[in-house]
């Protein structure tokens, strides 16, 4: 199983603004070995970083893309689902009963839900109020997404075990076709080795190691 080391920082020392320009991000390991297991077209670079303190887990995506697609019809599940986005999934164990999903588009819209192994998605479930904060920024050739999740909420959901969090890290890339349909490219940190695109499987997860102080 792939793993990523999340370095510890001093409490309240990192403030997110959506740009990922805080000096502390230079301390974080850069994860960039993303793959699209079901698409032979080359993918643009994606960088993921994470840090943590005694209160929060911080994450930061930088996605290089000059043609970002955002469906602006409304803030519905379907609208966000037809937009470019980054995603974090968290599981308690391989049974995926349940697991938790956070999907974020380049304008900071959040689609958060609980799910189970039978692909039953509970969209009326949301991350505990004020326990998840997200900010983003769009430039001409890339977009950034920064966020924080409270350690308390991760612990209450049973997602931290021995300073490890089983995590899926993904990107959905959307393009509009000539007939106005949406064509998707699915990109992941871990190759789940499935015949068809599928993030909702235990084999698509790796591990975040929360390093000691």
Task: Map the helices and strands.
Layout lengths: L2 E6 L37 E7 L3 E9 L12 H5 L3 E7 L7 E6 L5 E6 L5 E2 L9 E7 L3 E9 H6 L7 E13 L5 E7 L17 E5 L3
Question: What is the distance, rounded to the nearest whole angstrom, between the alpha carbons of the first and last residues?
Answer: 24 Å
Q: List low-confidence stretches.
A: none
What is the residue-mean pLDDT, rounded to a whole number?
A: 94
- The number of distinct β-strands equals 12
What's the quaternary structure here?
single chain
Main beta sheet:
12 strands, mixed
Level of helix content? under 10%
Please report the number of helical segments: 2
Per the principal axes of the C-alpha atoms, what is the gross shape?
A: globular
Q: Give me the strand/helix succession.
A: EEEHEEEEEEHEEE
Radius of gyration: 16 Å
Class per helix and strand makeup = mainly beta
Strand content: 35-45%
């Amino acid at each position: 199983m792939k793993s990523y080391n999340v370095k510890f920082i001093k409490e309240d020392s990192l403030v997110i603004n959506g740009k990922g320009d805080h000096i502390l991000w230079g301390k974080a390991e850069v994860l960039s070995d993303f793959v699209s297991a079901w698409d032979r077209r080359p993918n643009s670079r994606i960088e993921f970083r994470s840090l943590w303190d005694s209160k929060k887990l911080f994450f930061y995506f930088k996605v290089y893309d000059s043609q970002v697609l955002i469906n602006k019809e409304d803030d519905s599940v379907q609208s966000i689902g037809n937009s470019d986005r980054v995603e974090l999934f968290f599981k308690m164990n391989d049974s995926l009963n349940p697991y938790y999903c956070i999907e974020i588009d380049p304008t900071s819209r959040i689609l958060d839900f609980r799910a189970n192994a039978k692909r039953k998605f509970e969209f009326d479930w949301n991350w505990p109020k004020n326990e998840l904060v997200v900010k983003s920024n769009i430039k001409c050739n890339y977009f950034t997404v920064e966020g924080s999740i409270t350690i308390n909420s991760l612990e209450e959901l049973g997602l931290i075990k021995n300073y490890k969090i089983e995590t899926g890290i993904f990107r959905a890339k959307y393009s509009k076709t000539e007939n106005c349909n949406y064509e998707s490219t699915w990109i992941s940190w871990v190759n789940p080795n499935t015949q068809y695109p599928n993030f909702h499987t235990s084999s698509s997860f790796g591990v975040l190691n929360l390093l000691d102080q």
